[in-house]
Write a structure and sequence with these properties.
Elements (H helix, E strand, L loop, with lengths): L3 E7 L16 E2 L2 E2 H11 L4 E6 L3 H8 L4 E4 L6 H6 L2 H4 L5 E6 L7 H14 L3 E7 L8 E4 L5 E5 L6 H4 L3 E10 H8 L15 H8 L4 E5 L12 H21 L3 E2 L6 E2 L4 E2 L4 E2 L4 E3 L3 E2 L4 E2 L3 E4 L2 E2 L4 E2 L2 E4 L2 E2 L4 E2 L3 E3 L4 E2 L4 E13 L4 E13 L4 E2 L4 E3 L9 E3 L4 E2 L4 E3 L2 E3 L4 E2 L4 E2 L8 E2 L11 H9 L2
Parallel strand pairs: 1-4, 1-6, 4-5, 7-11, 12-15, 13-16, 14-17, 15-18, 16-19, 17-20, 18-21, 19-22, 20-23, 21-24, 22-25, 23-26, 24-27, 25-27, 26-27, 27-28, 28-29, 28-31, 29-32, 30-33, 31-34, 32-35, 33-36, 35-37
Antiparallel strand pairs: 2-3, 6-10, 7-10, 8-9
Organism: Paenactinomyces guangxiensis
InterPro entries: Bifunctional_GlmU (IPR005882), GlmU-like (IPR050065), GlmU_C_LbH (IPR038009), Hexapep (IPR001451), NTP_transferase_dom (IPR005835), Nucleotide-diphossugar_trans (IPR029044), Trimer_LpxA-like_sf (IPR011004)
Catalytic activity: alpha-D-glucosamine 1-phosphate + acetyl-CoA = N-acetyl-alpha-D-glucosamine 1-phosphate + CoA + H(+); N-acetyl-alpha-D-glucosamine 1-phosphate + UTP + H(+) = UDP-N-acetyl-alpha-D-glucosamine + diphosphate
Amino acid sequence: MQQLYAVVLAAGKGTRMKSKKHKVLHPVCGKPIIDHIVGQLRELDTAKTILIVGHLAESLKDHLGEQVLFAEQEEQLGTAHAVMQAKPLLEKEPGVTLVLNGDHPLFTKETLAKMVEKHRSSGAAATVLTALLDDPTGYGRVIRRTDGSVDRIVEHKDASEEERAVHEINTGTFCFDNQKLFAALALVNNDNVQGEYYLPDVISILKEQGEQISAEVISDSNEAMGINDRIQLAEAEALMRQRILRQHMVNGVSIVDPANTYIEADVTIGPDTIIEPGTILRGKTQIGEGCHIGPQADLTDVTVADNVRIKYAVIDSSQVDESATVGPYAYLRPGTRLGPETKVGCFVDLKKARLGKGAKVSHLAYVGDAEVGEKVNIGCGAVTVNYDGKNKHKTVIGDGAFIGCNVNLVAPVEVKEGAYVAAGSTITDDVPEDALAIARQRQTTKPDYVKKWLENRSK
């Protein structure tokens, strides 16, 4: 089978985005636009993927690194001119070249693979990916002959009224016989309203040379959507989010209210998990089987094992082991790991803390830079005092220890296995195994003090 190559056009300024960031680096469902495209091409196993860059080229090079090859278009003189910049890297290669725009994140692997297969099986010199739109305004029209074959592509600005009445549009995505592509590109001129070198003109040139041109009509026209401004960015986000949610539901995940659930592209979820409204799952989050997530759970790069319950919580770069419960109103910051069957309750803040199996921090506590053993109970208002103004220090609590309410553990400090710390204590020294530590002012009670004080005030 012939090798497959790809040329992705991303040299334009994207002025309608009104942004200092390159257009294709804006995210859709948690991933930059260009990452969606490069990811699909990786799935197609392209031998070379060449990104045509121009405006803000360095930011694209920094972002993609060695994932692609780069060719620079110093002047933006049109799409044909852009593809020509890949000539030194591709001209002599036999095979098939897929050309697509860098601002089309909604194409699926299946659509692109089907197009490539159509091109290979037809023996055509070029294949156009087309779509049927109710309102084709602004798009180049695909003009067919009476036998259904593709005759030419006419840009909207250059089209006649009769041609503008055609609803089949060019998606800007093509397959070419690679060597015939570069031979035809040399013949493209800029005799048009915009004074640009249009890639679709290659279709007319190949047709005039007697070559066969085929077309593949996309089954879902939404995939053909390009992004030129923030409005289209939001529309693409909504379309991709629906696709993501639908796939999770097909895979056995219950999503109570899809209209109010936000799941990014790289999230994985096991079957029989329930996702409640208001939940946002971001980044590389992985959810196990039989979990109940939400309502109002915001998870970023979190690994969640099976049968976990999380509600009204924010969790970032942490791990939650099987059968743990989190929330309501808990905050787990990076580096936290909750062991099996742990409980983290309301208004608890954890940072870089490891909780052993069955440990409980039920409410109103801060545990940071801490290692907490199995079946430890940390009471209401407890704080690991981990920061001395310059450095962070570690607290270690052994298995089975009990930390009373309103305790301050001034790190570095260790409460050893089975020890108890009395409520209201401020602990600065290690507590031995099975000991009781009390560190508070002895209570003094003065009888009738208030009565006498009020009498003196009234004089």
